[in-house]
Amino acid sequence: MFTGIVEELGTVAEVTDQGDAIRLTIEAGTVLEGTGLGDSISVNGCCLTVAELGEGRWTADLMQETLDKTSLAAVTPGDRVNLERAVTVDKRLGGHIVQGHVDGVGEIISRSPSEHWDVVEVSLPPHLARYLVDKGSITVDGVSLTVVEAGEASFTVSLIPETLARTTLGSRRPGDLVNLEADVIAKHVEKLLGGYLPTPTTTPNDEEE
Q: Could you tell me the domains of the chain?
């Protein structure tokens, strides 16, 4: 589990194509402290397992499912990525509960800079719209953010200077793809209530149409 509070920006060092998988090697510092083989690190919001450790770098294996469902299939050497170690029970939950399981990929639609923050609009896959509410939580490339306005096809967030400086969201531009994870609590509530809510039925007017 993660909190969506990025610990550092890493740099992609190597991408090894294995056909139906890739090996991703990332240069880092902070997230390697106390980290061992088999530990979890979030990369742009995607939970990856440490397969190799070296001096100032670590390697993970990305299977086809990960490549199909996240933006990590497009990373290249030199790209910066958001990194966060799995949270421990003695740490503050500074953001919100993040699993590192990407629900979909969105696209930066626009960004409106101001003196003290940027307002960014991100496209939203249709199946995720029901989980977003104004002032609720959303994870964008591993960053815990508060939704400003939740729409059916997009949502907006406000990025403060700290977020702009310490994460990749400061350099994302319209057209860039970002990993999205909806609030897991909303998904559990939907599942639990599913057995108690009536199944939608057609009305006479619907049948006539």
A: 8-85 (2.40.30.20), 104-194 (2.40.30.20)
Structure tokens at 106: 């969105």
pLDDT tens-place string over residues 51-92: 999 999 999 999 999 999 999 999 999 999 999 999 988 777
Beta-ladder partners of 46: 43
**CA–CA distance, 177 with 181 (Å, rounded to integer):** 13
DSSP per-residue string spanning 129-146: GGG--TT-EEEETTEEEE
Residue 202: CB atoms within 10 Å: 9
Contact between 157 and 145 (Cβ < 8 Å): yes
Q: Is this prediction's pTM over 0.85?
A: yes
Cross-strand pairs, 107: 177
Ranges of residues in the chain with a pLDDT under 50 are 202-209
Which amino acid appears at position 95 of this protein?
A: G
Q: How far apart are CA 203 and CA 67, in angstroms?
A: 43
Phi, psi of 84 (to 5 degrees): -150, 130
Beta carbons of 44 and 69 less than 8 angstroms apart? no
Q: Look up tokens 């190597």; give the residue.
A: 14
